[in-house]
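Note on ligand handling. Small-molecule inputs were canonicalized before submission; formal charges were left as drawn, and no protonation-state enumeration was performed. Where a ligand contained multiple stereocentres, the stereochemistry in the source SMILES was retained. For zinc ion, this procedure yielded the string shown in the input block below.
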Amino acid sequence: MRERLFHSVAFIVLVLLALAANLSVATAAHWTVSIQPTRLVNGTPVLFRVTTPKPVRTLSGNWLGHEITFSFDASHKSWFALAGASLETKPGTYPIELHAETSSGQSDRQAISFEKKIRVERQRYPRVLLTVPGRYTAPSPEDLRQIEQDKETKALIFETLSPGREWKGSFTPPVNAEISDVFGVERVFNGSVQSTHQGLDFRVPSGTSVAAVNSGRVILARALFFEGNCVVIDHGQGLLTLYLHLSKFSVKEGDDVDKGQEIGLSGGTGRATGPHLHLAVRWQGVYLNPQVLLKLKLP
Ligand SMILES: [Zn+2]
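Structure output:
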């Protein structure tokens, strides 16, 4: 009887040990996906950080129909990529699909993948009434010709998708000034023309030095009808920043710029109610909230 009890106890202990061993294997080798900011709303950029269950050579993902390429951050032993959710994204949960190839040994390379559901919440944006010179809401035939031409120019520029990442570290503000208008505001110009404010306005007088928010290449530096004198910087992997209403250019198309380098002077050219700097962020075809990008802590 005593011996039987001993056998039963020994058996239970063995089962428990086996379970514990299994459990520790499972927790040591799994995927983790985290986001910054932790609460994601429509119209904001997002930094994905991923750890993989095994060392991998490359990591790519699919998010809201966009292909994203991850970079490895050796100091955090994790992979990271910037992405975003457009203003039009409906609230709900959306999967990020991750694909990687393990780097252990030449012969036993293995494709691994993972999917995690990410919640996008609804952000409500305010509505304001503004007054601008009449030609910006009722353009002349000549103005309309320029608007059409600008559309083609912008469509070409906005298609830019350089494979390499040019940005490094956190983004820095283009000017040291207070914010005069936020992203996402529904604006009604002269009581008739409706437009969503797809950037961030800084209250600066004309002639203020405007700096690149991160490193990249100038892909546009020219006058456009609504944007006025406009600079677009390509930071790679589909991330662009736009600087509008400038009074003067300090760079030309094709120039490489460093973070903090002057790209022009602020002004009030184009459709503006007065001198200010309008900063916009585009990622793979959608406008994102620059205020959130400027707050992200990036490797
Ligand atoms: Zn603006």
